[in-house]
Amino acid sequence: MKFKIILIFLLINAQFLLAAEKKIDPNEIHKNLRCLVCQGQSISDSNSDFAQTIKLVVKDLIKEGKTEKEIYSFMSDKYGEWIIFKPQLNIHNSLLWFLPYIILILGGFFLFNLIKKRQ
Amino acid sequence: MQNIIKIIIFLIFFFIISVFYISLTRETNYDTSNLINKKITEFKVINADETGFYTRDDLKKNDFTLINFWASWCAPCKVEHPILMRLSKSKKLKILGVNFKDKDKQAKKFLSDLGNPYDFLAKDINGKQSVSLGIYGIPESILINNELLIMQKFVGPLSLDDYNKIEELIK
Description:
The complex is a heterodimer of chains A (about 120) and B (about 170).
Chain A: H1 2-21, H2 26-31, H3 49-63, H4 68-79, H5 94-118
Chain B: H1 2-25, E1 44-47, E2 53-55, H2 56-60, E3 64-70, H3 75-87, E4 93-100, H4 104-114, E5 120-124, H5 128-132, E6 140-145, E7 150-155, H6 160-169
Parallel strand pairs in B: 3-4, 4-5
Antiparallel strand pairs in B: 1-2, 1-5, 3-6, 6-7
């Protein structure tokens, strides 16, 4: 019985334990950062001087124990939101995030009404 | 019903055209204007002879400081050098030169050939310090006041217009 309880406890907490163990992959961050001096390349793709410097800084920030979110926040603070490929959810681009869902719902209603009328 | 559909199609078309128009005409290059009036929160560069560091406390001692990132291998840095020499004569302004990813010997030769406009000389060996000031290429210069607020940021070589602007700002 005790063994079962321990097993259930471990299973429930496994994801938290794994999350704590999970290391930040610098390459994932590099892929999401824009090389400001290159044409449409990410920091990961580029070998420019700027990209190399950013890679060093990202490495340092990870060493300091910063989270992925904190690293993006640091970068956008220094270079503006433009440096991050994936747009952050804020008031300026909320439409970008929610418009597809709004269109999907409105489209659903529209189709539903259309089918209902035809029937 | 058909009219409503026509209006919806028109609105969608109008929306798509608007999005394209705004996106294609918008300035997407790195813009430094968001840094103006921001406070420098972290700053620590090693001085040129590696005997100590320049920190935020050192910058607070000056009324105005122009932090100039330069290197001997950077051709536009030679272009802006006469402007820096003129600015060095200003009593209210101190210039901190940060030698960026450069070799000591070449940096010294650059200054002995063209003159040394810097009140303080530091170096950023691997470029990491430049990131804390949002630098992405050199030359770049940042004018700050004694409250460590960024008053202006100049990307590229300083021009005569920039010189006049700096003189105006530090009056």
